[in-house]
Amino acid sequence: MYINETQEFEPSTPIHSVEHQSRDAASLNNSKNLTHKITTYLRWIGSALIILSAISFMLQGYDEILPAYRYWVGLGLTLLLCGGGLICAYLFHETKGARILFGLGAAFLPVQVTQVSAMIYGYWHGQQALQPEYSWLQFMDVSPTIIALDLAITGLLLFLVSYASFSILARKHLKTLLIASATGNIILMLPIRDGALIPFIIAGLFIYLRQIEHHLHNDRSMRLKEGLAARALISLPLLIITGRSLLHPTSWILALVVSSMIVVHCIFDIKRYTNSANIIYLNQWLGTFAAISAWFTVLSQFETVYSNQFGLFLPVAVILFALSSQVEYHASLYRTISAWLILLLTFGAMIDQQNMAPVITIAAGILLSLAGIKKHEKTPLIIGNLCVTSGFMYYGQFLTSLYTKAPWASTIALGLMVILLASYIENKEIKILAKSRYYFDQIKSWD
Fold first, then answer.
1. Are the C-beta atoms of 444 and 377 separated by less than 8 Å?
2. pLDDT tens, 191-245?
């Protein structure tokens, strides 16, 4: 009896059946990818429509709606979004839509808070309250009962919606996010619009939130979409306070604080959020402009103190020199511009016989020389040495005056120094020549 080898090794599943299964699997994957793209686009479109509609209502609304009713409309929008989130979570058993809707609901909460704050502020200060020019932002003539009711509802909603939103987005850091959100919204609710006090409140809240942000950014899970959304939500009260303050009469302190915030974000923090060269480059110039603008903002208030060019532009050189160690692009250009500004300004100040000009020239020259050595750049080093030399030469006039009064003492001191210098050179000749040669060879290879 012979065994048919072809039958013995014949596979149990036909080849054409395997091919059909592979095609079906590939078709199913393509269908899932297409569905995922469509639903992603739909979610983006829906979110954009909701946000734009809410902004349109807050900016325009209806003239016949009273301020108290405007609050209730906003409250209805918030509850509607949270209701949609519950439907997605418990009816559709879908978490992406729930996260988006609860996140939008939490983003609307600071709007509710600032409306209650405007009501309290308008009632507290009466007709003396600072009101923006736009009528749709004024919340006057609201009864105390309505204010108390709105305050209670806002507080309850703030806790419930924030708890639900942050639980869905970043449960690991729920406590930290809740505290940061509550802190920002409580500060947002304060009935303060004073241009001299609010800048310090904004600065304090910015420092606090920046520390929280650094802590959250160190967790890799908080760099995902959900974590980024949660981090953005706790920053909304700060943005609203800042924007609201710009609608009222501003002060130079507020301008200085806002400029400083832009500098910190654009120069120091932006590098932690993106690797895009274009974004970092644009933010660098924006931060540089903000830093210089901050100085001129201060200058506008104390122009009588800084009435000369030395006092006007020397801080600009210092700002550029300080930023050169933080920027990603054109750091050498920053130091070069700073060095030339320092040279021109200090020379002009010494020619004008201004007080402290030689001391500042020598100090600036030392810093520029050290920077040139550290960064291996010729321009700061040469200009720094020139500043130091010119600063000491300025004091040479006092030696001349001393010589005219007591020439014998000056010549004795000069003779002693010359003899000591000759002895030192003769004793260290080889070492001095070697170091000088090495020094100049190094400088030739620098930029």
1. no
2. 888 778 889 999 999 999 999 999 998 888 888 888 888 999 999 999 989 988 8
Distance CA 122, CA 131 (A): 8
Both structure tokens of 5: 């080898």
The residue range of the domain holding 85 is 32-249
Question: Would you say residue 292 lies in a domain?
Answer: no
> What is the Cα–Cα distance from 250 to 266, expressed in whole angstroms?
23
pLDDT digit string, tens, across residues 378-388: 788 888 888 88
3-state DSSP of 214-279: HHHHCCHHHHCHHHHHHHHHHHHHHHHHHHHHCCCCCCHHHHHHHHHHHHHHHHHHHHHCCCCHHH
Token readout for 380 is 């700061």
Q: Which of 218, 249, 280 is the endpoint of a domain?
A: 249
C-alpha to C-alpha distances, 218 to 213, 268, 322, nearest whole angstrom: 9, 16, 27
Residues making up the chain, counted from first to last? 447
In a domain, 436, yes or no: yes
The DSSP letter of residue 329 is: S
CA pair distance 147, 115, nearest whole angstrom: 10
The residue type found at 165 is S
Kindly report whether the global pTM for this prediction surpasses the value 0.90.
no
